[in-house]
Write a structure and sequence with these properties.
Elements: E1 6-11, E2 16-23, E3 28-35, H1 41-45, E4 53-57, E5 61-62, E6 67-68, E7 72-73, E8 76-77, E9 89-91, E10 94-95, E11 104-106, H2 108-114, E12 118-121, H3 125-135, E13 138-144, H4 160-163, E14 169-171, E15 176-182, H5 187-194, E16 198-204, E17 216-219, H6 230-240, E18 246-249, H7 251-260, E19 264-280, E20 286-297, E21 306-312, E22 318-323, E23 328-331, H8 346-363
Parallel strand pairs: 3-4, 4-9, 5-10, 9-12, 15-16, 15-17, 17-18, 18-23
Antiparallel strand pairs: 1-2, 1-13, 2-12, 3-13, 6-11, 7-8, 14-16, 19-20, 19-21, 21-22, 22-23
Length: 364
Amino acid sequence: MFKVKQAKLTLEDGTVFKGKSFGSEKSIAGEVVFYTAMTGYPESLTDPSYTGQILVSTYPMIGNYGVPFSKQENGIHKYYESHKLHISGLIISDYSFEFSHWNAEKSLSDWLVEYDVPGIFDIDTRALTKILREKGSMLGKIEFEDENIGFYDPNKENLVSVASCKEREVYGEGDNKVVLIDCGVKNNIIRCLLDRNATVIRVPWNYDFTKEEFDGVFISNGPGDPALCDATVNNVKSVIGKEIPIMGICLGNQILARAAGADTYKLKYGHRSHNQPVLLKDTNKCYITSQNHGYAVETKTLPGDWEALFTNVNDETNEGIRHKTLPFFSTQFHPEASSGPTDTEFLFDDFMANVEKFKNNKSK
């Protein structure tokens, strides 16, 4: 019989939710955010963009298909989006003690224990999510028994320095060399580039890659406040001056915008789901996208030679930018998905077409 301990979630406004423990029995603090995806928790929990966050799932039952067997292809995990869990804690309504899936090797609880991540179930996640929607994402803490720890705001730290790789790495042997600035990259971004004949040169967030030989630059997703990533912004500025093709995703959208001279700001509760509709500029084309971010670009601060590329249909926030004449663009959503819809994966084709064109012009 699975034995559970009592645990509680306390929000910074004083609200307390009592539940039962699964996973690690460790008290932690962080930013409490919710996500509305119905599937794909192995991908979400290994997404580095969740660094420092206590994640609330609005889908009621979690854990029923366990955790997939870990294997590597091309030097990266096939079923995970990084090499470990990045969430600080997990809050759910109903935990499935029994799991069943052809590719499952362990339970979700065992996986959380492995990375010392606490989880609470038997929480009214609907009531909790309503609080976060009305008041915004807020600080919170998971505590066991009589423990009393303090609150912690992860966004005051440079979380990118935590989530980024520490050394330069190279993947693939494609014809086109792409520098990937790792701000907390998801593995499927690397997969999508490798599938398109790229050699991926993955570098840390603050690495001076300007002496590298490359045909394009890719700025990855990542956690936290883009205003704390000056080293990345400055390196991107130097590339803009050379007119080398650039693509960014999520935090990469915010980094590119700041390099262009625009501002960013914190959203009330962010976008974390598989069903965010975005409208492509000057068209009636609306795409359903996967998203995970708490900050956004202030569109009205973009310089005159830049423009919004996509806009969120729900709240009209920025979902991408592009330069009007040069091969620079980025998206706030995740065209690589994993998990989520793949409707916008064609944007990788657009980027690689820019890279091919730049490479051919350079060789003339």
